[in-house]
Amino acid sequence: MIEPFADNLAYLKAELGWLDRVLMRAIAKQRECQREVNRVARNPTDRATAHWWQGFINLEPQPGGRLWRPGESASPHPLGRFGERLALTAAQGLVLPLPALCDRLGLNAFERDVVLLCLAPELSRRYEKLLALLNNDEQGCPHPSVDLALRLFCRGDREWLAGRAQLLPEAPLGKRKVLSWMDGSPTRHSHLSRYLMLNPKFANFLLHGQPSLAKLLPKRSRSKTEVVPLTVTAATDGGSPTVQAG
Question: For residue 91, what are the domain limits?
């Protein structure tokens, strides 16, 4: 029997259970790739060009490591993951901060999952170690990189492009100061190498419900001359809605 969430912590634990599975599959896939490289590479050049030659050399397939299994269907519920439980929770009058934030900003499933990924280290420091490992760079940063978020939550080129657009500073998460960006290594200047950080005020809201969403995101009136931003088709748990890029 499906039951509503008892409180916000119960909801966040359910979300983190899902995130744990995604991260564990990502780590399995990363280890599989590293084993293949170690088995074939003969010199530093082989290792540096591994992503290129792995696409041309037929290596024996290894089990596990897929982020998304073939035939894996999207959730049909309009609220996405845990949709029925969220509906029951809302019917009881309990407002959960993360769904409330998504509703307020019109965030889609990808943007919600990125916010959850950035929030995870605020709930357990073990996520810092997992993120540092999965970033797969010399920095060892405990924050997710733009590249990592796209690798975890996008299932193809179209979703990847849409996701990258939603992780630009001028997109809703950046424009409304939910997320900020930190440059990585001084030798790397691509957007993919930048790290995502959750604004502490929004972290407190997502954990404790304070400060209120009304204070964090006061409604803005649109002038008659304001240009309506273009929309970007984005990946969702179900369906294909569009998300404003500004």
Answer: 8-41+79-216+229-237
C-alpha torsion angle, residues 6, 10, 11, 13 (rounded to 10): -170
Least Cα distance to 244 among 187, 162, 178 occurs for 162
Its pTM stands at 0.76
Residue 195 lies in a domain: yes
Distance from C-alpha of 109 to C-alpha of 134, rounded to nearest angstrom? 21
245 occurs within a structural domain = no
Angstrom distance (rounded) from CA 168 to CA 80: 24
Instruction: Give pLDDT tens digits for 167-187.
Output: 999 999 999 999 999 987 666
Count of the separate structural domains present in the chain = 1
Phi, psi of 128 (to 5 degrees): -60, -45
- DSSP type of residue 217: S
1 in a structural domain: no
- Which two three-digit tokens encode residue 98? 């993360």
For residue 221, being part of any structural domain is answered with no
Chain segment 197-232, per-residue pLDDT in tens: 999 999 999 999 999 999 999 876 555 444 444 444
**Cβ neighbours around 244 below 10 Å, total:** 16
